[in-house]
Predict the 3D structure of the following.
Amino acid sequence: MTHTPVTGAPPRHAAAPAEDLTADDAGIRGVARGGLANLIGAAFAGLSGFIVAWIVTHALGTDQAGAFFASTAAFVLIGTVAKLGTQTSLVYFPARLRAIGNVAALRRCLRAAFLPVTVASLVIGVAMWVFASEIADVAARNGQAEYAHQLRILAFFLPASALSDALLAGTRGWRAMRPTVMLDRILRPTLQSAYSRSCSASTSRHRQRS
């Protein structure tokens, strides 16, 4: 009695298609490149922060330097409130929508996140400008006028900062690290260094006139 082999049956341990392996390798390489770029950007941001601190402490007086650091700390804290905690959702949901292939829902997801952030950042920015003197009286022991002046300047940038952070979180959810590295790790510290140098120069001119 002969046994006829069954044809067309798949092998028990079928190898994965070559295109799937290539896609997986490309994804792993993309994650590695993004992590390396983020590490380099974080190092640049840390160095820029050190430069800003050095410029401010050496070029400004005690009251002016304290007002500068206190106002930037308040700006970061208030900006965190203005973002309404949307950064985590803007990383998770775009990544999930991309994984399941539901790209059409991405627009609704982004609109649902950006509209509240826009409204909140505008309202909080206006309140920050209007009540800058009151905030300075509560938060600062010395140099209240300089502190309030710094807060009013930073209030204009609050909506842009909150929206840019939300947008960058969305790009990370879409597995794109380059915008975060270029804008958040390189451009923003560079602008902070330029802002600190301009504050130092204006203070030096004011001292020379007086």
The longest helix spans residues 18-59. The mean pLDDT is 77. Helices lie at 18-59, 62-82, 86-100, 104-130, 132-139, 144-155, 158-173, 178-209. DSSP finds eight helices and no strands in the chain.
